[in-house]
Amino acid sequence: MIVALSIFLITVGSIAFHFWSPWWWTEVASNWGNMDDTILLTFWITGAVFVAILFFVSYCVWKYSYRKDRRAEYKPEDKKLESRLTWATAIGVAALLAPGLVVWNQYVSVPENAYKVEVFAYQWGWKYRLPGEDNILGKTDIKYINDENPFGLILEDPNGKDDLLVDAQELHVLKDRPVKFELRTIDVLHNFYVPQFRGKMDMVPGIVTYYWLTPTRVGDFEVLCAEYCGTGHYAMRGRVVVDEEKEYKKWEAKQITFEKMLAKNGKNDNLQLVKKDK
Amino acid sequence: MSDEYEHKLEAKSDYTGDASSVSTPDIDAVPDAELPDQELYHSHSWWTTYVFSQDAKYIGIQYALTAIGTGLLGLVLSWLMRIQLAWPGLGWLEPSSYYQFVTMHGMIMVVYLLTALFLGGFGNLLIPLMCGARDMAFPYVNMLSYWAFVVAVVVLLASFFVPGGPTGAGWTLYPPQAITAGTPGYNGGIILMLISLILFVAGFTMGGLNYIITVLQLRARGMTLMRMPLTIWGIFTATVLAMFAFPALLVGCLMMTLDSLLGTSFFMPAMVSLGETLTHEGGSPILFQHLFWFFGHPEVYIVALPAFGIVSDLLSVHSRKTIFGYRMMVWAIVGIGALSFFVWAHHMYVSGMNPWFGFFFATTTLIIAVPTAIKVYNWILTLWRGNIVLSLPMLFSLGFIVTFLNGGLTGLFLGNVTVDVPLSDTYFVVAHFHMVMGIAPILVVFGAIYHWYPLVTGRMMNETLGKVHFWITFLGSYAIYFPMHYQGFVGVPRRYFEIYDSPYVDVSTLLLNKFITIAVLIVGAAQLLFLYNLFASARLGKKAEKNPWKANSLEWQTPQMPPEHGNWGKELPKVYRWPYDFSVPGAKEDYIPQTQPPSEIIGAKVEKT
After folding, report:
1. B498 vs A contacts (CB less than 8 Å)
2. Which residues from chain A sit within 8 angstroms of residue B603, using beta carbons?
3. What is the reported pTM?
4. Inter-chain contact B328–A50, Cβ cutoff 8 Å?
5. pLDDT value, residue B19
């Protein structure tokens, strides 16, 4: 009796917790609200299975508790029942999977007009690079990284000289403009994660990974590293600010191009190299 | 299986005659033995009996005790981590120690506790006894297997004492961070970890070959594959998986050792480490992740399949009812085992591998849910119209159903690639895998220990202590992991030493950390009750009668209990049926042991197996 009741109460308690606990996702700030929808769908389907099975167990434990004068039913198999259950499960699983794959297809297909931003991760912090006027990010190589060229831009690549270098933990993005994050790390694995954006992707040294989103609401969000990256992992925080056009332009105007940065550092040799290539 | 007993009489021509026992009626015929009786090594001193034992039963107990001892360290490490998470203000852990404890806790629990306990412990104890063999096929190799495991554990623990301490790379040991400065134990600890794993794999291969060959070659006469207890099916299939999966881990470990010691670049691309450019070039960190998870996902089933098998037997025996859909259960075990090699990259949806793989691996992962669901249905249909004895093994089995169901369903979240994106690397994942491959199998381990304890010691464990242990462990661990999923929804990332006062994390989320930690401390402490019960009952426990649970399988039918060296006395047992003939209509008792010949139960309406 106590056992049956406990299983019943655990089931009811879990459902109550789900609806009334204060812990739930943060309000979404990107177009990936449909990820939330797939989660909700999954909740309804799996929740129904959870309740049905545990109520059944609780009923069995209550109803068929041991009595000396009774015998269990002797029924090793029931082909029909087994095949029905198998098909019902297969259909339920397909209902979960199909919408998931549709959304995944959107997630991995970057719109052509997406604005490219490089997210640059290192142990333990963030930097960012914007493509500048030409809308093209210049090529980089780890061998070029030094104090004067912290992003390791290839000096011979003319596309790089108007790139805006954001050597700070804070990035601004424009509301309602699709943005493709090109994720790059110079040391170990990292992961660029903003809880309100839902998106996520590891950054892997040697390759550039990516994901895209469209910010949908103005706000100031925290960036977290979501792939363990050493002792400082938990402190690897940054900020992403979603702006309306006016504020965004203001912020953008304050950023410095690669060319200007080289000039400011008085590295004329490097600068000339860039100019020669022009 | 629709044939009634009467049909068995007609079917007798299926059997080859039993020449040795002319007096037995034909319906009792079993096939002749194909191999001569096994010659055993007989120990002649205390050392060869208890230390360098070649008796699978002793080796099983050695494995189990070593694994549990190592697991206790894992438990204490989890206390230390949880105290840090609940009260970061205490400042009693450095970030580096926190990460070292996370790593060691994970590796110990998955490999050195669960794998060693299920396969090394229960495998050694149960395979020969349940199959009706005198011992494993190769007792000497079996002994080597255990001692290789001991050396692996010693090397693992030694890493606590090298400069820099044990590795803090996370139990997944991802390069480049595992072997570059910036991660604790990147030069000493990680090497010892890799060597320890290599030793474990070597030792495990010796044991694993033994389990497979014993099951295939040394079964008693009449013990067809489809008459084997599901426990043996689970352990057998898990061992086959391990034979294919562990090599991937082994080469991964070897390659990383070379990267670290000799400067090769299997997994190391050109990179900068804390301001210094390294000499590596051209390696692929993702290659390691593929190797690791090609091992790591089957590893989940290496732990889960023995638990599935054992819990099926516990449910059947203690509800006095035939396991429902035995054949489906066997095929589900085999099917899950096969499919488990095609799903590994669902751990890598956001790893930076080609995102188009997501479609394939999400599909295979959700397909594996179907045989898994069938198993759950068959467990609960076994309870339906049963005669359920709420013994300790039954309580733990019910606890398993609740936690496994919960953890299995959250697996449908994470396996579905889109849903995984926001949830991966958060506490949702931590809660999911602890529920499904931590708590659920551990509850089975407890149920199994309470169940087979009398077989090992000849005494029963204390029931009251056992019940207190059950309720605290079951309710406590549910209270730990159920709410933890919701921290994951909030977005709290895993492997964070401290979450500070992030703007999106509510104060109540941090309070929840305190609640969880208190529950962890209580559940952990309750295991002392279990340990006391385990050791004290060996002396003080009530003497067990023979076959105390009235089970059918062979391990309870030995001439002595506990079974002696060689298990079966002079004659090996003969098997006439499967182990699930419970509550057969027309039979006198509500159970018919596998060794009971048909001529003794005339009138019982058993189905042919």
Report:
1. 234
2. none
3. 0.93
4. no
5. 45
Q: Locate B192 and state its tokens.
A: 């010892």
Structure confidence at residue B101 (pLDDT):
97
Domain boundaries, chain B: 51-228, 550-609
Cα separation, B414 vs B423, whole angstroms: 7
CATH of the domain spanning A115-276: 2.60.40.420
Q: Which amino acid, one-letter code, is at B493?
A: P
Domain ranges of chain A: 2-66+77-108, 115-276
B128 in Cβ contact with B551 (< 8 Å): no
Instruction: Give dist(CA B158, CA B155) in Å, integer.
Output: 5
Candidates B356, B366, B490; nearest CB to A97: B366
Q: According to the model, what pLDDT value does residue A266 have?
A: 67
Task: Convert B94-110 to b/e letters by CB count within 10 Å (16 or more is b).
Answer: ebbbbbbbbbbbbbbbb
Under an 8 A CB cutoff, do A74 and B584 touch? yes
Q: How far is Cα A115 from Cα B239, in angstroms, rounded to an integer?
A: 51
Interface TM-score (ipTM) > 0.90:
yes
What pLDDT is stored for residue B2 in this prediction? 42
pLDDT at residue B23 in the model: 52
Neighbouring CB atoms inside 10 A of B145's CB total 26
End-to-end CA distance of chain B: 7
Spell out, as residue ranges, where chain B has pLDDT lower than 70: 1-25
Q: What is the mean pLDDT of chain A?
A: 92
pLDDT of residue B18: 45
Task: Indicate yes or no: CB of A64 within 8 angstroms of CB of B388.
Answer: yes
